[in-house]
Design brief:
Blueprint: H1 3-22, H2 39-51, E1 66-69, E2 76-80
């Protein structure tokens, strides 16, 4: 995976890996994980949190946690757990 894609989906995959491990699955055994992640939605959320002049964060210490959910299916499409890190 390229580092550009990795920075957008890192927190989402960390959550998935944590859930797999909690169920006793080994994530380094060639296991394939398919998610509902929408990469364009993830990139948009990342840009809003980190580079958008429309969102007026008072300083770089202010953090954010956000999840975009498809209201029709309940599937998580994008997730963000911090900014400027």
């Amino acid at each position: 995976m390229s580092t550009v894609k990795q920075k957008y989906i890192d927190s989402y995959l960390k959550q998935v890996i944590q859930e797999l491990k909690s169920k006793g699955l080994k994530t380094n055994s060639g296991l394939k994980v398919y998610t509902n992640l929408d990469l364009s939605a993830q990139k948009h959320l990342y840009k809003l949190a980190n580079n958008s002049p429309e969102v007026g964060f008072p300083n770089n210490r202010m953090q954010i946690g956000a999840t975009l959910v498809d209201s029709q299916t309940g599937k998580v499409k994008a997730m963000l757990g911090s900014r400027k890190k």
